[in-house]
Amino acid sequence: MIFDLVSPILGFEEVSSLEFNKIDDCFANIDSKEGYTWTLVNPFLLKSYSFEIPYYAKILLDLKDDSQIEVYCMVVLQNPLEDSKVQFLAPIIFNHTNKKAIQLVLSPLLYPQFAKLESLKSFAK
After folding, report:
1. What is the DSSP-derived secondary structure letter of residue 121?
2. Of 5, 12, 14, 63, which one has the greatest count of Cβ atoms within 10 A?
3. Is the predicted pLDDT of residue 52 greater than 90, yes or no?
């Protein structure tokens, strides 16, 4: 699925669209036509995860009450894989209803529980 990026990903301001590919219930990846690829993880499957979507993001995403959204966080891949780190402070929201996406940058002051990168192995059960 191709999504229009309504606000740039930090450090990748030239990227305007993303191809979203769900791998399974936990992982996905996104690719840009500029040649970038990112691995994503569903944060809700790892820990208690919630945040407020700011008003500006709701407007940019054109969110409605019946909008179908998914939230993912970027994974900084490491070798071995279980040492990979999850960035909880910068979730990406995908609005499947209208194919728009945005990366939010959450304040560590408002969300101190997400302030550090956490390795995937810390979530292994």
Report:
1. G
2. 5
3. yes
